[in-house]
Hints:
By secondary structure, the chain is α+β, with helices and mostly antiparallel strands. Helix content is 37%, strand content 19%.
Amino acid sequence: SMYVCDHDTGEMWSLVALGVKERFSVAIGTGISGMCAQSGTVINVKDAANDPRTAKAVAAATGYAMHSTLCAPILGTPGAPGHTRGGAAGVLGVVQLLNKVGGTGHFSKEDEVAIVAFCNIVSLAMRNAMVFDELRVRDAEREMIFSSISSYICKFSPSGHLQWSNNPKQLEATLGVSSKRMRDDRFDTWLQTISGPRDDPE
C-alpha cells in the first residue's frame, strides 16, 4: 500500500492499496503505518497481528490479515530524518508492505534497504510533481495579472525604470509593487517577484 500525508487534516490517504477499491484514510500516528508517518522512520514488524500498534479497525475495514509488515516513510529529502510536523524534511507519505511470502515469513534488513531506496525514488517523483503544480499556479497568477494591467499606459525610461503611468495607484495595487520601487528599480527586477493584487494599495 502507498499513503499520501495530509498534514492539514492529520490524515494519510491510500493512493494504492492492492485488493481495495475504495480509498481510505488513516490518522497520522494511528496504526503501524501512521506511526511510521509520525516518526519518519522505518518500522519492521514480524508479528503484526499481535502487535499493539496495529490498527485493528483499519485491518477489519480493508479486509487485510496482517502477519508481517514493513513500513517506510517517503521523506521530503531522501535519506534525511524527518517528522510529519517540523524538521527540514517532512514526511510526504508512507509505503507499507504486508505478509512476506517465503523464507522466514517476515521482512529482512535487505528488504528495509530496498524499500528505503524505492521511497527515495517516489519522493523525487512527488517533489517534482509538486514543483510543477506550483509553477503552473504561478503562471496562472501572472497571466491573470498581465490581463488585468492590459488597460494601463506606462512609460519607462531607456534604463527600464517607470517614469509615468495613467493610473499609478491602481497599478500598484494590482501588481503588489510600490510605485517607489517601480521608479527606483529596473522593471525586470520587480516583475519577477510580483505578489499579486493587494488588499491595501497604500
